[in-house]
Amino acid sequence: MNTPLQVLTRPFAIEPVSSIMLPDGIFDNAIYQLRIAAHFTNTSASPLSNVTVYLESVGDPGIAPTAHTFTFPTIPAGGTVLLAWDADFQHATPGKPLVSFVARADGFAAQRSIQQIFVSQTRFDSASNTYTCTVEEGTLTISNIQGHAPGKAWGEPTDNGKECRCPPRFGPTVPTGLTMAWKPNPAYAGTHAELPFSDPWWKVLAIIVAVIAALVAGIAAAAGAGKANFSVGGSVEETDPSVHCCSLKGAASGKPEFTVAGVASAIASGAIAVACSDEADPFWRGQAATPPAAGETTVAERVVAKWKMLEAPVAGKAYKTDVSWTYERFTTGKTYHYAVTETQVNVHAAGPVKVETPDVVHAFAPLWVRASFQRQDGTLFKGSDLYSFALFEAPQGLYFVAPLTDDGLGFDPAANDGTYAGSLDLERTYRLLLQQHQDVRGIWRVFVFAQDVNLTKPGTPPHIAAQHIGGFFVASAIEITFDDSLPCPLKAQSTITVV
Which tens digit of pLDDT belongs to each residue from 204-214? Predict the structure, then answer.
């Protein structure tokens, strides 16, 4: 009998410098180094003992994963563990390669899980100031990006003298408009083109472009020259009001100052999805409204969208945008037009976040945090519903990243109970603190973040699967604001005193 430990949902991309999941978990070879993350679920009613898991192969020879075998003394019944492998995507081909994982536990034969991943290719053309995102089904070109750009107060101290650090070059631009041009491969007959990856809407590719454009400069700065293979120096047409947020000072394991910059950029870029709707984006809706005449084939399409942010984009909040967009279909016979003006609401909304930490910890016991994330209806996210992590801030300002999981291991009380837990080894951390002439004793602050995961089952019809998008922040310790009078929006959810 095979080991009942399987990958039941699509693996997703984690950018290792910022620690964030890329939009909808899609891998893009503009960023060479990515992590292939996957949830492994014990599908049996009994715990598994002496478990080993490794990534066996990737269907694209241009993707080079780093070999690593994970071991667990036990995995609880029904428990889901999150594992991730570093991989080089520099030579990856846009497409849907298969990834094979192997798990083995005492008393069972090896279990192989095979899942698809989605790979895109983003490039920037400085001559035309355009981005292109290429997938098997065609190429999306992004131009005329407009947005709220960080204002002069970005990174400046607040009135009370407390620092609100946010490096200006990593400020999140909240998109308020863009032009998307789609060139299908090949040209097609009929009303609808094949969806990118037969799953996401076209707007997801635009979000990938926006997030990558925000991340790559930071990645190059953190990891050294040559880690990104295109420039991200494109200009953005600035509109008012300005956007301000805070970032973290200093850098340590995982470059957490880039984590907060990445979180802010991902939340800001999510405005594209809100404006363009989750249920069906402007391309799909435009296609439905402009069926071509018999004998015509569609050779190109274009959407010009602009929207007004009625409130700042805040993770987990049902914020609104007023949006107007026009769609054009270019066929071998004529050009078709369709236009919409409407108000859209962020559907990636969530309820309150509860965070628990010990009040006092003696050096050098581990620091731990437990968090629960409510949906809007009051139920809890559980197990593989989320990708979550915490930042621990040392008393003198150094930061450390720790994953939060609902797997019943470590400081997590039970698998799939809606409590996500993580910890920080103070003995190992102390060595890094000493290098920065900092002490482990004092008040530590804890910041919690969570992104939803695309749990669409393989085989779901494409136009249904496309309505489920992952990678949106449903909880964040950082809030983007349009109001200069508000206090620094980087807020710790808990504190721990180390004595």
Answer: 999 998 888 77
pTM (2 decimals)?
0.90
State the SS3 of the chain.
CECCEEECCCCEEECCCCCCECHHHCEECCECEEEEEEEEEECCCCCEEEEEEEEEEECCCCCEECCCEEEEEEECCCCEEEEEEEEECCCCCCECCEEEEEEECCCCECEEEEEECCEEEEEEECCCCEEEEEECCEEEEEEEEEEEEECCCCCCCCCCCCCCCCCHHHCCCEEEEEEEEEEECCCEECCCCCCHHHCCCHHHHHHHHHHHHHHHHHHHHHHCCCCECCCCCCCCEEEEEEEECCCCCCCCCCCHHHHHHHHHHHHHHHHHHHHHCCCCCHHHHHHHHCCCCCCCEEEEEEEEEEEEECCCCCCECCCEEEEEEEEEEEECCCEEEEEEEEEEECCCECCCEEEECCCEECCCCCEEEEEEEECCCCCECCHHHEEEEEEEECCCCCEEEEEEECECCCCCCCECCCCEEEEECHHHHHHHHHHCCCCCCEEEEEEEEEEECCCCCCCCCHHHHCCCCCCCEEECCECCECCCCCCCCECCCEEEEEC
Q: What is the per-residue pLDDT across 241-294, written as a single tens digit (0 to 9) for each?
A: 444 333 333 333 345 556 777 787 788 888 898 999 878 899 999 999 999 999
